[in-house]
Amino acid sequence: xxxxxxxxxxxxxxxxxxxxxxxxxxxxxxxxxxxxxxxxxxxxxxxxxxxxxxxxxxxxxxxxxxxxxxxxxxxxxxxxxxxxxxxxxxxxxxxxxxxxxxxxxxxxxxxxxxxxxxxxxxxxxxxxxxxxxxxxxxxxxxxxxxxxxxxxxxxxxxxxxxxxxxxxxxxxxxxxxxxxxxxxxxxxxxxxxxxxxxxxxxxxxxxxxxxxxxxxxxxxxxxxxxxxxxxxxxxxxxxxxxxxxxxxxxxxxxxxxxxxxxxxxxxxxxxxxxxxxxxxxxxxxxxxxxxxxxxxxxxxxxxxxxxxxxxxxxxxxxxxxxxxxxxxxxxxxxxxxxxxxxxxxxxxxxxxxxxxxxxxxxxxxxxxxxxxxxxxxxxxxxxxxxxxxxxxxxxxxxxxxxxxxxxxxxxxxxxxxxxxxxxxxxxxxxxxxxxxxxxxxxxxxxxxxxxxxxxxxxxxxxxxxxxxxxxxxxxxxxxxxxxxxxxxxxxxxxxxxxxxxxxxxxxxxxxxxxxxxxxxxxxxxxxxxxxxxxxxxxxxxxxxxxxxxxxxxxxxxxxxxxxxxxxxxxxxxxxxxx
Length: 578
Ligand code: SF4
Known about the structure:
The protein is an alpha+beta fold. It contains 23 helices and 17 strands.
């Protein structure tokens, strides 16, 4: 195996602020991203530990193909025990840190321990020549945008950054980990949002990681055929008529269709359609490019999908980027906030403070539903989100997520699974997606296995969910972005050429299944059982839809059957399900 494919491992002990570099273990050769994070956590983290204690382990693991010339393949997995769910969590993120870590030879960063003084802040400097923990007290409590502006004065123009804002420092369970994007300014606009991993980073006193890629080239594959494969894949993708929506309009183009399927939640999910879909539709963002500037871009080096939008304000100044479908629904329609420009302001606030927009939107909607604020109060919501950074009582509750607000307000309608807010994709019309929310070790997370096939027969739910969960585990371990929509066969071809071993589609599917098993095993050891695989009661009580009424009514036996692998010979994996 070449040095490039073997790589190294960084261990950071935040108790002593010391660093050790190790050779990457041979036994983990084919593990990257999410699957590597799951294995490290299973082997090195006590599942019943305090998520904010010294024993928890924060993993930063680029996907297997990050740092290579494979298109759209530089994603990073951020992993740890979640302070939101108490179970294992992996949040997958774009931006350049995943590419850069791999290019300088590191296949994972494993952060353990915590400083004796919780007031101290540290940075981690990573380059091909050295890795060290440095004091960073001057950056304490900085929001992500000013932090990155300051760091870009200190580091080279090529450096990329992983950081937390005040929500992470306050160790709130809705805190995200920000990654700088591919823009010249290194905007901290890409977030490993779900599960509160920003709080884990904050508990370790780690304010940021800076990666200097220097002149490190792309990683060399074992088989030169890899370059031809990358070129052909790119050519076919660009020519493919079915790939048009995301590169042209981004993920927010889906608003109208989601609304028609009753999966555009309105007023804390009391309804599945919003009367404001027209003013929230992502097409309004695309229209704004003409007069204000902005446009579509690639959030990471080498992305050919370019689904990320850059949003400008009325003066033509940059406001935010990556304003996606989930944010427009959860911080928009779910709170009855009617205009995309208000959601853009909220998206910028969340990115700056370091918050998951899905969890924050769900928490604000529960607060509104419980009478804390009027639905539709956009300015009040902006004030409330700012309070999260200030650490007020209600700010902390909202920053800790929907379940925390439900407890504070003693409210009955709290749409969560395993303590994590249900994303926009609604389990009542999309029942196989609901099965994913119940059975994923990570709780309600559409990126764990989304199935957008309304009207499926009940006997199809578990199989569809399982297949989607395997595929997503594979993709999140590969470094490819889910929006590229590679299938398992194609991923196997890339692995075969990169490593020089024949890796079949069956082997790749088995890797995905093993990743799920590792995650389930972690949760089992953390004390999770069948009682935790329950959909929020309000999903069974509150019907949505006009002629057809949708409620969550999937029997437990169907949910449970997702844990037994269906006949692998019948797995299709021909296309992504949405
Ligand atoms: S497809 Fe979109 S989210 Fe994925 S890497 Fe490219 S720009 Fe980023």
